[in-house]
Write a structure and sequence with these properties.
Helix content is 93%, strand content 0%. The chain has helices at residues 3-52, 61-147.
Amino acid sequence: MSTAAADDRALNAVRRVRDSREQDSRFGLQHALNAVRRRQTELREARDRRAAAPSFAFGSTAEFVQHLGQLAALAEQEARAAERVEGSRLVADEATRRWQQDRQQVRVVDLLLERRAEVRAEERRRHEAHELDDLATQSWLRNRQAAS
């Protein structure tokens, strides 16, 4: 195993765990957003049912009271559907927040890995430059001794 891989083994393990968490939270977010869409559809249907309810034109008092009861039931269904939409939105907002946090944690580990790789590359460049300086110095010394 190379030294870079050995140096980053623990950080790569952390990245895998955080990546798994991010994927799980993304799946949860997708599920929550689908639930919001379903709840919004239910609310739209409840509103449509209430809007499509026939108006009371004529009839007995008992029929009028029955009609009011039906309208009240439709309004109650719409109110419950609106509450479910709001509840679903709250869950989706929390799922979004969690996913963003998990995604940020993965990015942090990625940045650390990139910085470590950059530091190692810079160290390699410095080491190579030092070796080239040594070779140039040795060559100069040999040429100087040969000239003397």
